[in-house]
Amino acid sequence: MNDIDHAAFRRIDLNLLVAFDALVREVSVSRAAARLCIGQPAMSHALARLRSLFGDDILYRDGGAMRATPKAVALAEPVRRILEDVRRVAGGEEDFDPARARGKVRIALNDPLEALLMPGLVARLRSRAPGLALSVQSLPGSHQLEALDAGEISLAVGYFPVVREVHEAVALYVSGFSCAFNPELVSMPSRPGLAELARFPHIHTTYTGESSGVVDGIFEAHGLERQVVARSAMPLSIPFVLKRSPLVAVLPDMLVRMFAAHADLRFEPLEVEGLSLPVSLLTHRRDRRDPLVAFVAGLLVESMEEWISSGAG
Length: 313
Prior knowledge:
The structure is a single chain. With about 325 residues, the chain is α/β, with parallel strands linked by helices. The protein has three domains: about 5-90, Winged helix-like DNA-binding domain superfamily/Winged helix DNA-binding domain (Arc Repressor Mutant, subunit A, Orthogonal Bundle); about 100-175 and about 280-310, D-Maltodextrin-Binding Protein, domain 2 (3-Layer(aba) Sandwich); about 175-275, D-Maltodextrin-Binding Protein, domain 2 (3-Layer(aba) Sandwich). Helix content is about 45%, strand content about 20%. The chain contains twelve helices and twelve strands. Helix 6 links the parallel strand 3 and strand 4. Helix 2 packs across helix 3 (about 30-35) and helix 3 crosses helix 4 (about 40-55).
């Protein structure tokens, strides 16, 4: 990009461009003055300065009417674009029309959240912003923060026990936990406590990264330890493992709801104080005024609210 000759700009008053736009739109000094809420003498003075700046009459009298010169007509659209750019920069906000938006939006969702939120999100995007493409990445929580900081993604949804000052979080949902097991292989009382759960080997999913620390921390706080004999990177495999092995899985209720079709398994809610998984929507402070990021964030919130109202609670 070429360097700007700042000294040359000292003789240009941006207010003159505002006056130029009003004069060309109204083709009348008096109406242009009224449009800008200034006196007619001040507008006449601005017209004189514009004539000197552009070396052109800008407006001329043709019989009883005023007309814009060919040069003024040619300059009208470029000047209008300049004023729009200045307005956006100075105002810090840009007019955003989702229906006309183009580009790609990159977000991070783990597998369960993608299954829960993506149907509603994609439907909303296709309806309101068909020119936007969606790219979803499945990343552990800590890697989501790194990707957000690096600008590789614009939004992240998940469990974030620690965020930095540059991150802005919106609470979406707090998931409880339930235990899942095959009642033909595991004898478990209704509404089991941690002691009953600790009697059986466990399978755990690592999809939320630090969520294992939430569950294990609760056991430790009660002087108990669970034995995790299998760890799955794919939470959707857990029901199939439970059907064949005498294991127990302690799962967020978001997952349990997805597994409801597995009628041969049993799911028991866990009423243990402190055992919950908050889900948040994260953006980066640099994108605070980005209308596209704000738009997609709003769609994610709507999608989560839709899922909750359909029976998540």
